[in-house]
Amino acid sequence: MTEQRYVETGVESLDSILDGGVLEGSSVLLTGNPGTGKTVLAMQFLYHGVEECDEGGVYLTFEESGEDLAQAAERLGFTRWREHVENGDIAVYDKMDLLDEHDFAATLTSILDEVSGGDYSRLVMDSLTMFEMFFETEQERRRYLLKTVEILKEKGFTSYLVHESAEVFPDRDIGLEEFLTDGNFYLGQAPTKSGSNRYIWVPKMRKQAIDTHIFPMEIGEGGITVHESAAGFLQMDDRGGL
Ligand SMILES: Nc1ncnc2c1ncn2[C@@H]1O[C@H](COP(=O)(O)OP(=O)(O)OP(=O)(O)O)[C@@H](O)[C@H]1O
Ligand SMILES: [Mg+2]
User: Fold this and answer.
1) Chain segment 58-83, per-residue pLDDT in tens
2) Could you tell me the residue range of the domain that residue 201 belongs to?
3) What's the 48 CA to ligand 1 centre distance in angstroms?
4) Is 202 close to ligand 1, i.e. is its CB under 6 Å away?
5) Comparing C-alpha atoms, which of 29, 9, 3, 1 is closest to residue 205?
6) Which atom of ligand 1 is nearest to the CA of 41?
7) What Cα–Cα distance (Å) separates residue 180 from each residue in 37, 107, 174, 242?
8) CATH assignment at residue 49
9) Nearest-ligand number for the alpha carbon of 43
10) Sorting pLDDT into bands at 50, 70 and 90, what band is 231?
């Protein structure tokens, strides 16, 4: 058996929680309420890939335009995001591109064909929830979901599938998405007197020895920072979060 490689997430402590990163070719479901940092974590995954690992990335988004993403990236200190998009190291497809043709599933398939086979190894879908809205019946939705996860695997992408959750963590609904993907990251926010505390939880990552504790995180210059120390977590508790 060939040894599988770990793909760095761009967040040092998260790599260590994952025992090295995400196994190459895995699909990760990124779940969280609005504003919990899903898009930031996904951009950071692609930016780090290009900047530090020489790995191209694809960002498929219905949530924001390519320009919105570029502005958000710059504000986070991902200063060369725009340059990477311009020179093709990061391929961004926004809703204008995705809604180009009438048949959405066919458009998606042709985009995935276009980006596979060489230059790109990381892929983000932001969000799966929006993509799923294109299917009228539950059966169609499930079939599409299964097919998409299969195609991503077949083409060798290490992927993040963003999934909006209306549930307040940790009372969560386990859906097909959780079972189909190789791993799940949950992002959350807990209100405190002074604002809110952010946290991340990795409940599942197939074939990997993970740390399943809940860890505090922050969003700021440089993107997301996860605090691995238990002390950081206790402090969060003392302030009334969680
Ligand atoms: N440069 C920054 N500095 C500090 N915090 C930031 C910065 N950029 C974004 N944030 C924080 O990150 C949050 C947004 O994160 P993000 O867009 O990744 O959320 P999301 O989970 O994708 O939300 P949605 O479900 O609405 O798409 C903002 O609400 C803001 O608090
Ligand atoms: Mg988002």
Assistant:
1) 999 988 999 999 999 999 999 999 99
2) 6-238
3) 18
4) no
5) 29
6) 18
7) 22, 22, 11, 29
8) 3.40.50.300
9) 1
10) very low
Reported for 138-145, long-range contacts at CB under 8 A and 24+ positions apart, including other chains, are: 142/176, 144/105, 145/176, 145/177, 145/180
pTM tops 0.85: yes
Residue 7 main-chain phi, psi, to 5 deg: -100, 125
The answer to whether the CB of 223 is under 6 A from ligand 1 is no
Amino acid in the structure at residue 5: R
Is 142 a domain residue?
yes
Is residue 134 one of the residues assigned to a domain? yes
Q: How many domains does the chain have?
A: 1
- Asked if 57 contacts 44 with a C-beta cutoff of 8 angstroms, the reply is no
Considering every ligand atom, which ligand is closest to the CA of 42? 1
- In a domain? residue 1: no
pLDDT band for position 217 (50/70/90)? very high
Query: Which ranges constitute the DSSP H helices of 103-227?
Result: 104-115, 128-132, 138-154, 176-180
- What pLDDT, in 10s, does the model give residues 151-203? 999 999 999 999 987 665 555 567 788 889 999 999 999 888 888 899 999 99
Minimum CA distance residue for ligand 1 atom 8 = 76
Pocket flag, ligand 1, residue 35 (CB < 6 Å) = yes
Kindly state whether residue 207 falls inside one of the protein's structural domains.
yes
